[in-house]
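Exam revision sheet. Question 4 asks you to relate a sequence to its structure. Input first:
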Amino acid sequence: MNKIGVIFDLDGVIVDTAKYHFLAWKNLADDLGFEFTETHNELLKGVSRVRSLEILLDIGKVNISEEKKQEYLISKNEDYLQYINKMGPEEILPGAEKLLDTLDTLGINYVLGSASKNAPLILKQVNLFHRFKGIVDGNSVSKAKPDPEVFLIGAKKLNLFPEQCIVFEDAIAGVEAANKANMTSIGIGDKETLSEADYNFNNLTEIPENFFENFLSDNN
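Answer key, structure tokens:
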């Protein structure tokens, strides 16, 4: 195996939109009359919008109709999009652009594998959309992480076998999905939280200069 490809999660790896999800979910919880904290928000990382709402309602012990749930999903997303539409390149996380430059130099293709249905919009807002060979987002999959579907589709976009792919993730569900897909998983964030990852770094600035060269030579 002498060729590799990379699949990036979006939130917490390329940009930090978790803060905007938190604000939008908190606004909804405020409207429903209960407190939603940043600790609660950790439960929503890497989780689909529908499941996130279910968790939020469980926290508030709120029972509502399916029709009302759909209304809240729409209103939360509209609230979130107001924040997203103000984003710019300054919100790209440290090390991300340098890492993409390194991959470009090495001729290693990369795609996005995100649960977010707004991933294309976010990448356009920060001027990174054109750099990715493909986008796999919440509109492309029927199963959310930790199901490996998003990454398996990503491997197809790269024209590679799953075991040739390296996944950058900041969420437990994402690392689990990468491992289930038989890909190399790289946890970005707390090492204890992401202990199932094959490699761990606090952020993208810690990726060694020769990390991918070593990977290529290891897999020749």
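Marking note for examiners. The chain has two domains: 5-15+89-218, 18-84.
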